[in-house]
User: What shape does this take?
Amino acid sequence: MTTLDQIVAMLPKVELHVHLEGTVQPATLFELAQKNGVSLPVADVEALRAWYTFEDFDHFVEIFMTICECLQTPDDFARITYEYGQSMARQNIRYAEVTWSPTTHAGATGKLPWEDLLAAINAGRERARREFGVEMRWIPDIVRCYPDTASTVVGWLTSPEARSGGVVALGLGGPEVGFPPELFTDAFRQAREHGLHSNPHAGETVGPESIWGAIRSLQAERLGHGVRAVEDPDLVAYLAGRQIPLEICPTSNVRLGVYESYAAHPLRRLLQAGVWVTINSDDPALFETTLNDEYVHAVQDCGLSLDQLRQVGLNAVRASYLPEPDKSHMLAVFEAEYTRVLGPRPTQNVDDLPDLESLWDNLLSREPERIQGQWRDLAAEEREAIFAHLKRMVSEEGWAPAQRQSAQAALDALDSLRGAGSDADRTRT
Ligand SMILES: [Zn+2]
Assistant: This one.
């Protein structure tokens, strides 16, 4: 039987929220530190790996800053970009929109001229494209605790070499608390006027007001994190209505204490509310995760069905800044491959069926009389879709035991409801 890990590995993927600095693996960091004469707090790679397992947010920042300190020459940037491309290929990630923080590495506060930094990262991208066939675009960000650098970043990103060098959007990263989106209104307006997309982080460590600010002041087209929208029903409805995509990073949120567990994470709730959700790894090396791990967690620990996983996987292609016709082409390729791996998409997604929520509840509480009417009102293909979905839940690898039990209970309820009729027979095949 195919395991969930194998299924996820087979699916082609797009990653929209990943920090280049956060992809640097301990072994690479160790070599870079030796080469550049940077002293590390530990003596060997094994100890470095343990040190990477951060204890709190301050330690997380310390690791991130140490990585930045070890990145000094153009070759270093070419190398880490190439290595992320290698990791993409291993995970079947076909395309990524990657964030990095230019003022940390270039200009007055950095070690390289901006042009050299961009050229080095593009050299790594080119080599990864050549060797692995993976594609990347850039979302360089303003680090929000340095608002004074905003105009420098925008100047760089709107330059001809940036536009021809893969830059597609302006990001906004760093500590959200104390640095609201409104501080960056001018920078984002200028970026948009030059045709860049607006892609700030918001709603991670600050609540809904930060997301409203990013939408109203920065005209955000897509949001980094955005999970805390769940605290404001009006905002959830707005995001769903306007179809503003969220780049959700479950492990990052759990590791940084935004949510205490995957079970408490609002990924599934947001998806079911109609929000355009995508799944991402954020800083995979620091969170000891991969995009594939995130897809597995989404199903195993956050409770998504495989059909919902298909939806979020395809959402990432749609939410990307790929131009047409590249996007349509990639979407067609992904849909074909998802169908090959997961089977055809149900004629109608069971989650979209009318009153499914109450129907489902009734099924589970085994109150057949109450649902008889509802069931009769469903069209034949809607019943078919429900049967197919329940049977897959019972038989497929990758469902949590509780989910499998619920599905079996629902099938039993349908059996007892329908007696020896032909539909009941179908549930036993
Ligand atoms: Zn991030």
User: Anything to note?
Assistant: The beta strands are 13-19, 93-99, 135-138, 141-143, 169-173, 197-202, 223-225, 246-248, 277-279. The CA atoms of residues 78 and 175 lie 27 Å apart. The chain has two domains: 4-24+71-342, 350-428.
